[in-house]
Amino acid sequence: MSELAIQTQRLVKKFGSTVAVDRVSFEVEEGEIFGFLGPNGAGKSTTIRMLCTLTRPTGGSATVAGYDIMRDDGKVRENIGLVAEKLIMYNELTARENLKLFGKLYDIPSGSLDRRIDELLSRVHMEKWGDSQIGTFSTGMKQRINVIRAMVSDPKILFLDEPTLGLDPQSTAEIRDLIRRINREQGTTMILTTHMMVEADMLCDRIGIIDRGRIVALDTPRGLRRLVSGTDTTVMTFEIPNLSPGMLKKVASLEQVESAIQEDTTILKVHSRGDTAFDAIVDSIRAKKGRIRAVSSQEPTLEDVFLKLTGRKVRDEVSNRAEVNRRGHGGPGRGPHGRGGGSRIR
Description:
With 346 residues, the protein is of the alpha/beta class. It folds into two domains: 4-219 and 313-326, 3-Layer(aba) Sandwich (Rossmann fold); 225-310, Alpha-Beta Plaits (2-Layer Sandwich). The protein is built from twelve helices and 14 strands. The protein has helices at residues 44-51, 73-78, 95-105, 110-123, 139-149, 169-186, 197-203, 221-229, 245-252, 277-287, 302-310, 318-326; strands at residues 4-15, 18-29, 33-37, 59-64, 67-68, 80-83, 157-161, 189-193, 206-211, 214-219, 233-239, 257-262, 267-273, 294-298. The strands form three sheets. The protein has a six-stranded mixed β-sheet with strand order 6-7-8-3-9-10, sandwiched between helices. Strands 2-1-4-5 form a four-stranded antiparallel β-sheet. A four-stranded antiparallel β-sheet has the order 12-13-11-14, with helices on one face. Helix 8 packs across helix 11. It starts with a strand and ends in a 20-residue tail after the last helix.
């Protein structure tokens, strides 16, 4: 049986009367890629901040790499790496100088640090750019350096916050491949936050979905999909050349329909339930003079599960704004040993 890399027990974080994280309990095994998903303001970022010792919990407990996040926060920081959404690097310095700077924060001896930097640059195929300024790099190149920056201290656990956000498809593929290789070759435990359901599905062994401060589902990607496919819910796509707002409203109002989404000018995606749903939907479209060109049924995706559990309304990140305003213990300015280099996890 694998050891636990992370264990939380009834973890709570409050900002005044607002409960951002509400008695969250979960475990992450060593060597696992664990996805942590949730809508804006759901509490995932605040949970990650507590695990990274960037903010203190109001209640409950957690251990990271076997160390208590409250009593042994320094030891926790020694055993983790953080790839934040915001690049933590200096454009005026070269890639090698950036890596050396962060290695010195961990008191790594110069000889060992130089060898480690050479190894990491080779891992991401950036050897020939090691002595070039970061400011001259493309976004994808910067992100590759950002990932290995978090690996300089050879952490047991790596937190990745939206690691492919804003990257082009080629750079996204490179970062995903890098994540897989680090996990496979070094056995590094990874905690991944992302809003890209395809990415979570591709990379994660298990996924926890948090909503309104509570874990609402935790399973493998396949297990989560069964939350939809194991019911009488059907996902159907209708191609309608003359699709109109009136048709969308009519279909969405049916008692058999859980949701109806217009994906483009001619495509209507419907989540329905029950044996009578198909006939009712078709009748509603035709009643609005809709011409159905094609119909297809599909397996639920991880996005379908996410929306089923958390709803479709876009939310603001209230808990994060409150946290930034309060600037509690262990705020964004703290680095691996409490000496600079930190970054706000959004």
